[in-house]
Design goal:
mainly alpha, 82 residues, elongated
């Protein structure tokens, strides 16, 4: 499973589809990016896994996926979790 393979389920409204697309696009771009800022894939892969699990729930937990994606952004920027 990966974030890149997610597609919106039927019945999704436009806003949720946009939110989902932003999360998926971020992770797709990150996978092809050579620069991970202040972190590495050893740190980011467990976060990506949490995003993927959230998006595969029925219904998808977009809020959790966005929160974990924001955490990844903080890690890339060199900010700690605390």
């Amino acid at each position: 499973m990966s974030v890149t393979s997610g597609c919106p389920p039927s019945g999704f409204d436009d806003l949720n589809e946009i939110r989902l697309r932003h999360v998926v696009d971020f992770w797709n771009e990150l996978r092809v990016c050579n620069e991970l800022g202040a972190t590495n894939w050893k740190v980011l892969e467990p976060i990506e896994r949490q995003v993927t699990e959230g998006l595969y729930r029925k219904p998808p937990d977009i809020g959790a996926a966005e929160a974990f994606t924001a955490l990844a952004m903080f890690m890339i920027a060199g900010r700690s979790q605390g």
